[in-house]
Amino acid sequence: MGGFRTLARRSGAAPAALARALRARWRGWSRWRRALAVALTALTVLVVPLGSAALALRLQYVGDPSPEARTRGRDAVWLGHAWVDGRKGDADLAALAQRLAGTGVRDLYVHTGPLEHDGSLPPAVHPRARWFTEAAHRALPGIRVQSWLGDEVKPEKDALDLEDAATRDRVTASARQVLDLGFDGVHFDMEPIRPGSAGWLALLDQVRPVTAGRGTTLSVAAPQIDPLPYQHNLGIALTDHGKWWDQAYFAETARRVDQIAMMVYDSSMPTEAFYGGYNAYQTELALEATPEDVDLLMGLPFYWEDKWGHWGDAETVTAGIRGIRLGLGRYDLQRRNFGVGLYVDFAATEQNWADYRRDWVR
Questions:
Q1: Is the pLDDT of residue 1 over 90?
Q2: Whether the Cβ atoms of residue 335 and residue 325 lie closer than 8 Å to each other
């Protein structure tokens, strides 16, 4: 490799002569030496940018969060299907009310679906939905009860086709159906939607007048934003899985809703420091993309898993909240339409709730 540098430093060498000299030197090398040069070059191209990105991410976790970066009373919690299918009753609701007392939770996303693959919603899947909306409004005054509707999405899954107008019409009818049951809003969680999907944006444009006409909320769960430029393209090309959105598509979605909750878990971060730094970075990216009059919630893992893509010792509530507070303080500390989303009630531990109260609510 020293020969390349020596030739390049020859101040009198014309470009054409230098190129001929480099080709001659390359041909003179053995096969193994050329292979080594190619491997080292490829390693440099890959490792240097990734190393720089890793260092930048780790530095995101450095510093002390602002004391003002705390709950604004706009937090949310995802609730499982047991609340609307008959498995939970009055005693469970009383315990939930006690659990939420003194927190910043304003919204409940209650799993009322799933939607059928054609976009319809059979009433039989939520026989106790009316009971829950009425009982929750009595037990939890001031808290909004939103219907969580979701399904898997084409083209990655053989399921909901949002590019089909008839399917979107049936999803819109399902939104009307749950609002008729007393819900204060509709919360869509449809995965994996690939950035660029015109059908997803068209659906939001179609449902927003329905919720607005009822004086209710349109809310969505959204993926993380590309940590590196065009990373979603690389992920789809390599794995056929759309994990991230580009920031512009996140913004297109945010402009069409009242509330957007980013799912900042299953991040693949290996340590708490990296996960916290990742949360800080995602918070800044999301704040930049979300209009100030739209609620932005950063999702936290209220569950334990330890597998590839989600390391339990890394993705902790404590690290997530510290990162979110750092990001909020650096980018827009005065943003009022901001909170955290807690996923999910049936997997949450006492420690999860204690960490949330200590680190975010206090």
A1: no
A2: no
- Residue 2 has a pLDDT of 41
Cβ atoms of 359 and 317 within 8 Å: the answer is: yes
Structure token pair of residue 336: 């009022």
Backbone angles phi, psi at 5, to 5 degrees: -65, -40
Which residues make Cβ contacts (< 8 Å) with residue 107, sequence separation at least 6?
74, 75, 76, 77, 143, 144, 146, 185, 187, 217, 219, 259
| C-alpha–C-alpha distance, residues 110 and 92, integer Å | 14
Q: Which residue has the tokens 């659990």?
A: 99
- Reported as a single tens digit per residue, the pLDDT across 174-225 is 999 999 999 999 999 999 999 999 999 999 999 999 999 999 999 999 999 9
Spell out where the chain has E strands: 75-79, 105-111, 144-152, 185-191, 217-222, 224-225, 244-245, 259-262, 295-301, 338-343
What distance, in Å, lies between the first and last C-alpha atoms of the chain? 59
> Please, are residues 84 and 345 in contact by the beta-carbon 8 Å criterion?
no
Closest to 183 (Cα-Cα) out of 192, 193, 191, 174? 174
Taking residue 52's Cβ as centre, other Cβ atoms within 10 Å add up to 10
The pLDDT value given to residue 202: 98
**Residue where the block lists tokens 């995101």:** 60
CA distances for 36 relative to 1, 32, 33, 158, angstroms: 10, 6, 5, 45
- Which pairs with CB-CB distance under 8 Å and at least 24 residues apart come from 247-252? 247/285, 247/288, 247/289, 248/195, 248/289, 249/195, 249/196, 250/222, 250/225, 250/285, 250/286, 250/289, 250/290, 251/289, 251/290, 252/201
Beta partners for residue 190, in sequence order:
151
pLDDT, tens only, 221-240: 999 999 987 776 777 666 66
- Rounded to the nearest 5 percent, the helix, strand and coil shares of the chain are 50, 15, 35
Indicate the helix (H) or strand (E) that contains 138.
Answer: helix 129-139
By C-alpha distance, which of 164, 183, 174 is closest to 107? Answer: 183
pLDDT (mean) for 130-145: 98
DSSP 124: G
